[in-house]
Specification:
Layout: E1 5-7, E2 18-22, H1 30-38, H2 42-48, E3 59-62, E4 73-77, H3 86-102, E5 107-110, H4 122-137, E6 155-160, H5 166-191, H6 199-211, E7 217-222, H7 224-230, H8 233-239, E8 247-254, E9 264-274, H9 294-309, E10 314-324, E11 336-338, E12 344-346, H10 354-365, E13 372-377, H11 382-387, E14 392-396, H12 399-412, E15 416-418, H13 423-426, E16 436-437, H14 445-454, E17 462-466, E18 472-473, E19 479-480, H15 485-506
Parallel strand pairs: 1-6, 2-4, 2-5, 5-6, 9-10, 9-13, 12-16, 13-17, 14-15
Antiparallel strand pairs: 3-4, 7-8, 8-10, 11-12, 14-17, 18-19
Helix pairs in contact: 3-4, 4-5, 5-9, 8-10, 9-15, 10-14, 12-15
The structure holds ligand BES, manganese (II) ion and zinc ion.
Ligand BES binds next to loops.
């Protein structure tokens, strides 16, 4: 997808489809005004005749518009000016691109940088537009004999007014383009079935990303033999019941001028199928446990975005991958295992397996002496009960890191909500037989899972994102969402910007 930036009167833009956002109260934005002037008050009349209601997210396609150079006009409702903030803006942009993806058009010109969003400039709006364009044209048809027509959209021209910062718009579109690619990478990995997307398959994808990166990314894959030699028995215990061997996948991106600059580390839960193991899950909806590697998929997505955008930071991406299955060799409830850190864990429920692979990956992260570690996991069904499908659950041992992630979530409109990791909750993990148990009972299941991880994350600023409610959608639109790639990439770009500010203040 291409995202050229053009300073032009929208009425003059030559395009297959011109997209113009409209407020409900009838006060037209600069782009819409120019269009109205050129078209004998087309928009004004449509609203007066009640043929178009500019309610937020409403779209109206006008196949032949007089006075315009565009073949078609797509009006998009913004709702009222007072309520036009990030959420409304993104909803309107999404509505426009969903409609565009269904039209037989290869190119469009959009006038979204005019829309006033408090505290958000052209670069932010362009970033959101580019990201939305990628999300809208995504289809997962790898396994369909007759995939049906694919969206044709290939070029999105961002129209800016004379006063707008065209360079900032271009940079925003470049970032959004990279993030959109990352999001769709994550969706495809998530959507792939468990019989294709195995730990070995994910390892292969890491090697492929490195091979295509022109030297920017290196990988290291630890197989079961290497994990055994290392002492990662907790990770290995999860895959014991499976015929698919487990893997620890490490990807390193060196973007900082100083190769020794402390890296930011992402750690993804990569359970390529979670049957629950001996603590077998009920059958209904179990197919969706192929999505239990969406944390890992979001790490691959963030790496993809970073390779596209190339921020000047160092990044280490770790994926802890296994298949959780029942068998005669599987870990049983009551078994006690030894983690890489040396702590013993009583496995009271083999379905609480995510924390068992992540704890060893967190211990492994220590060797990189990280500036921060963020793990991403479809860890608990309880996160869906607490936050539903809108917010990712955030827990951290460091308030500054928590704030940075919350902030990145607001900017990317891929939001998280902070939950407490108070000492009082830690007692729920007490075990009669080992150093700790792998479950903490029903109360606050998301928090006690976070508490478990926190025991392995005391050597660096660490945060945990529980994406059980946000990583995929169920029902008719079943599929991976690509969250929280946007948040993660924003977080990393913000760290780059922070580094720049520090450099300037030192100089
Ligand atoms: N992968 C699941 C969590 C999950 C369940 C995510 C449903 C999204 C939808 C995780 O491995 C799991 O099974 N967690 C258990 C933990 C419990 C045994 C303490 C859960 O949430 O029920
Ligand atoms: Mn489970
Ligand atoms: Zn799981």
């Amino acid at each position: 997808m291409e995202f050229p930036v053009q300073t032009a009167n929208p009425a003059k833009a030559e395009t297959a489809c011109l997209v113009v956002p409209v407020f409900k109260d009838g006060d037209l934005l600069p782009a819409a005004t120019k269009l109205d002037d050129a078209s004998e008050r087309l928009i004004g009349q449509l609203i007066e005749r009640e043929d178009f209601d500019p309610k937020l997210g409403n779209v109206q396609m006008i196949p032949f518009a007089p006075g315009l150079n565009a073949d078609r006009l797509l009006l998009v409702g913004l709702g009222t000016r007072e309520k036009c903030q990030e959420g409304a803006f993104c909803k309107a942009v999404d509505a426009a691109f969903s409609a565009l993806a269904k039209l037989p058009v290869e190119d469009t010109a959009v006038a979204f940088t005019d829309v006033p969003v408090p505290d958000r400039a052209c670069d932010w709006k362009a970033r959101m537009v580019a990201e939305a364009a990628h999300r809208a044209v995504y289809r997962f048809t790898d396994f369909k004999s007759e995939p049906g027509p694919a969206p044709k959209l290939e070029r999105v021209t961002l129209l800016v007014s004379e006063g707008d910062d065209a360079a900032a718009t271009r940079e925003g579109a470049r970032v959004g383009d990279g993030i959109g690619q990352g999001i769709n990478t994550t969706r495809t990995l998530g959507n792939l079935p468990g019989n294709v997307c195995t730990p070995r398959y994910l390892a292969g994808r890491a090697e492929q990303l490195a091979a295509e990166s022109g030297g920017a990314l290196s990988t290291e894959i630890l197989d079961e033999e290497a994990l055994e030699a290392l002492g990662a028995h907790s990770l290995l215990s999860v895959g014991h019941g499976s015929d698919e061997p487990s893997r620890l996948i490490v990807m390193k991106y060196q973007g900082a001028e100083d190769p020794d600059e402390a890296p930011h580390v992402l750690v993804g839960k990569g359970i390529t199928f979670d049957s629950g193991g001996i603590s077998l899950k009920p059958g209904a909806g179990m197919d969706e446990m192929k999505f239990d590697m969406c944390g890992a998929a979001s790490v691959f997505g963030a790496v993809t975005s970073v390779l596209a955008v190339r921020p000047k930071i160092n990044l280490v991406a770790i994926v802890a991958s296994a298949e959780n299955m029942p068998s005669g060799r599987a870990t049983k409830p009551g078994d006690i295992i030894k983690t890489l850190r040396g702590l013993s864990v009583e496995v009271l429920n083999t379905d609480a397996e995510g924390r068992l692979v992540l704890c060893d990956a967190l211990t492994y992260a220590e060797r990189f002496e990280p500036a921060s570690v963020v793990d991403i996991a479809t860890l608990t069904g309880a996160a869906i009960i607490a936050l539903g499908h809108h917010a990712t659950g955030l827990m951290a041992n460091d308030d500054d890191l928590a704030l940075d992630l919350l902030d990145a979530g607001e900017t990317s409109w891929d939001r998280a909500w902070h939950l407490p990791l108070w000492d009082e909750y830690q007692e729920q993990l007490d075990s009669n037989f080992a150093d700790l148990a792998n479950i903490g009972g029903r109360p606050a299941g998301t928090i006690t899972a976070g508490c478990f991880l926190s025991r392995f994350a005391d050597k660096f600023p660490w945060a945990h994102l529980d994406i059980a409610g946000t990583a995929w959608q169920s029902g008719a639109q079943k599929g991976a969402s690509g969250r929280p790639v946007s948040l993660l990439t924003q977080y990393l770009l913000d760290r780059e910007a922070e580094g720049r500010v520090e450099e300037n203040s030192e100089a």
